[in-house]
Each structure stands twice: as C-alpha cells, then as structure tokens.
Amino acid sequence: MHVDGNAIGGMLNHVFGRDATDVSGRCRECGAENYVGALLVYRAAGVVVRCPSCHATLMKLVEARDEVWVDLGGFLGSGLEPLGEARIHVVHTGELVDGDAEL
Asked: How far is CA 62 from CA 28, 30, 45, 54, 91, in A?
C-alpha cells in the first residue's frame, strides 16, 4: 500500500529546508518526469519513493536516532540540496557524498 509524495512533505522540509513536494525530477530508469508530490511513497523501516510509471526506486530516506540518511540516486535533475547539517547524510549511487558520517 502506498501514498503520494505529499505524505512525506514534512520529512522533506526537515531535510531540504523547503517544501520539496513541488520539485520535479526524472526517473533514472524510464525517464518519466514527475513532481515529488506525485511519486509513490511506501513506508516501512524507512521511506522508499518510487516512480509512478515504472516503479523504480527514486529515493530512500531513513531516520535513525538524530540522523537522516537520504539516497536520491534514482531522481535525476531535481536540484534538491539537503541542508548542511551534520546529522543529514546524503548518498548518491551507493556512495556517501557529504563526508560527515562513518559508514
């Protein structure tokens, strides 16, 4: 069962410091362009955001204690830049790119 991207608006605001539900980007797999608010969101131990066209994974967000891990590897061209806080760690294509955390 899923909800749309608007359901994680608060979490995205915390990570990006702005309303990110109106940001658009392209799916790495099929090239479909969508607004974050139109993406498919699945919640479990973390949040998985999928493309509504091909169901590829676009984003993964995990909150653990006082840290947030964000993987935007499948959501291209969005221009989303996380806040520069040490407790937010960004992963692109499996590699940590903020350098503030230990794997």
From this structure: 21, 25, 7, 23, 11
Domain span including residue 25 = 3-96
Q: What is the pLDDT of residues 42-53, one digit of tens each?
A: 998 899 999 999
Instruction: Decide if 45 is inside a domain.
Output: yes
Q: Is 94 helix (H, G, I), strand (E, B) or coil?
A: coil
In what order do the strands lie in the sheet containing 24-27? Answer: 33-35, 24-27, 75-76
DSSP result, 57-77: EEEEEEEETTEEEEE-TTEET
101 lies in some domain = no
Amino acid of residue 71: D
Two structure tokens written together for 66: 């006082």
Query: How many independent structural domains does the chain possess?
Result: 1
In a domain, 103, yes or no: no
pTM score over 0.90: no
